[in-house]
Design goal:
The protein has 2 domains: 105 residues; 52 residues. The protein contains 6 helices and no strands. It is 91% helix and 0% strand. The two termini are 15 Å apart. The longest helix is centred in the last third of the chain and has 39 residues. By secondary structure, it is mainly α.
């Protein structure tokens, strides 16, 4: 009786895992194909979805900061963070084309600042303390910033959409293959 229950439990696990694997695989495959086929429109859709997430998160953070603030805490900074996230979300939701471009430029600026800081650390560190790795990191970060500025925000968004699309297609195919393998395993358990 116990072996039958264990077999049934294993079969149920295989069936539910198979369905999950096929589901994730199909969704990843579709999302990947859409990103590769229409990178310019996909960026807007993704920006709007992320915008909704930022709105919900920012609203929650602002409410939490207002309802749980105590003397001596950083509730003001927490409120500011919530309001900034709320603003980013609203911008991504209602003006996704411009706000995604601004985010790309801010990422480039972040790379530039990171690169300059790494180069400054290189000068300040004594020999033998990893100066070479900081120097290389600094040059790579500055190079990425220059590349983003040279290529332009729209092209960077399209390139990112295509790369993410290719990764999602590969992930989708892997999940579909895993679902197929799980189906085979479920059939074998049924026969046993």
């Amino acid at each position: 009786m116990t072996a039958t229950n264990d077999d049934r439990s294993a079969l149920d696990l295989l069936r539910s895992s198979r369905i999950t694997s096929y589901g994730f695989g199909l969704l990843s495959l579709i999302a990947g194909i859409v990103l590769v086929a229409w990178p310019d429109r996909s960026v807007v859709v993704v920006a709007r979805i992320i915008g909704i997430l930022f709105i919900v998160t920012g609203f929650g953070q602002a409410v939490e900061a207002l309802t749980t603030h105590r003397k001596g805490s950083y509730w003001g900074l927490l409120l500011l963070r919530g309001l900034i996230n709320l603003g980013i979300g609203i911008a991504l939701l209602f003006i996704p084309e411009k706000s995604t471009s601004v985010i790309v430029w801010l990422i480039a600026l972040d790379f530039l600042i990171t690169g300059v800081l790494a180069l400054l650390v290189t000068v300040m560190l004594p020999k033998g303390m990893g100066r070479g790795s900081f120097f290389i990191q600094g040059l790579i970060a500055i190079g990425l910033a220059i590349a983003i500025w040279a290529i332009g925000a729209d092209q960077v968004k399209d390139i990112a959409a295509v790369v993410i699309g290719i990764v999602l297609i590969a992930l989708g195919l892997l999940f579909m293959a895993a679902g197929f393998q799980l189906s085979k395993a479920a059939r074998e358990v049924e026969r046993a």
